[in-house]
Amino acid sequence: MSVIVLIEHTGGTIKKKNFEAVHYATQIAKQTGTTVTALVLGAVAAAEMESLGQYGAQKVLHVADSRLDELHARAYAGALIAAAQNEGSKIIVTLHDIGGRMVAPRVAVKLGAGLVAGALSYPDTEKGFVIKKAVFSGKAFAYVNILSDVKVIMLMPNTFPATKIEGRAAIEQLDVSFGEGDFGVKVKAVNKVTGEVALADAELVVSGGRGMKGPENWGILEELAKELGAATACSRPVADSHWRPHHEHVGQTGGTVRPNLYIAVGISGAIQHLAGVNGSKIIVVINKDPEAPFFKAANYGVVGDAMEILPRLTAAVRKFKQQHK
Ligand SMILES: Cc1cc2nc3c(=O)[nH]c(=O)nc-3n(C[C@H](O)[C@H](O)[C@H](O)COP(=O)(O)OP(=O)(O)OC[C@H]3O[C@@H](n4cnc5c(N)ncnc54)[C@H](O)[C@@H]3O)c2cc1C
After folding, report:
1. First-to-last CA distance in the chain?
2. Count of C-beta atoms within a 10 Å radius of residue 272
3. Going from the N-terminus, what domains does the chain have, and what CATH number goes with each?
4. Average pLDDT over residues 219-246
5. Nearest alpha carbon, ligand 1 atom 31
6. Could you tell me the CA-to-CA distances from 204 to 145, 151, 199, 210, 260 in Å, in that order?
7. pLDDT tens digits, 58-71
8. pLDDT tens across 98-135, in order?
9. Ligand 1: residues within 6 Å at CB?
């Protein structure tokens, strides 16, 4: 009857957002008087899997099929269903990220389960099984009651902390038989972004818009990002104009980020841009127009020319770091 949580990894390394999902599942397990089982697919070292115990998982079910090293939505969904049935689980947790979006709806359909995508709260079990989520590009919240016996929850990354406790998860192998169609997509090449902080996992993001005037000015933005250890992002017109690569484009039609700090430089703050960034914990806006809509969503605002402010901000960060070495 345990709460089951799908773990994603990159080349055997489990990223922080998965620990958040285990922590989240652990709180639900406490609410519902059960335990947490994590499902790991593909090649991951035993020590890495055992470390899930530090976030509350009692057990890891491991499907050691090397074909699962790559994300195959049908195979992942099949494995998650098999794991849930193995454990008699009624509550299934995934992340609301690319992997979760490919897998969780398939699982929900097959199990006839209700699903909440982008969960922002623990379930309120006093009122049924009510979970908060954002709707209309973050303009409003919906409180969704899952009525079905089996429930699928897709947790929004960077919503809850990944709190560590004492513990080591016991690993159990799980055999799952897959059909040929489960691996229908062939991954021919993986082009990895290297030498930068990955945007999806970044806790700090420095993002530029059309106010940066052109790609030749990005050096000063990158310098600030480097000094902060931040990832870089951009608005859609910037990517469309090929000033920056498309994987940096955030917003309604781009990526979604929820960092602790989002610094928006020369971005007007259109609703389509905000849709991808308004889950950020702190938003700092640098814009020369005091009427720019982004200031309404900002925690801190600087009115001024980005070309002057960015180098000064970078120098201030550098000085602060030297003083606090
Ligand atoms: C269906 C649809 C989907 C869309 N999806 C997305 C999306 O996913 N992501 C996205 O970003 N957009 C998206 N858009 C586009 C969106 O509506 C805006 O047009 C876009 O976000 C504007 O980008 P920007 O803020 O960089 O540019 P602009 O709107 O041109 O704003 C530039 C800003 O820079 C400021 N500025 C100028 N010079 C300086 C300076 N020297 N120093 C400081 N500030 C300066 C200006 O005051 C201005 O506020 C979408 C639009 C549609 C219709």
Report:
1. 49
2. 13
3. 3-183 (3.40.50.620), 199-323 (3.40.50.1220)
4. 97
5. 268
6. 33, 33, 9, 20, 6
7. 999 999 999 999 99
8. 899 999 999 999 999 999 999 999 999 998 999 999 99
9. 209-211, 235-238, 251-254, 266-268, 270, 272-273, 276, 286-289, 292, 305-307
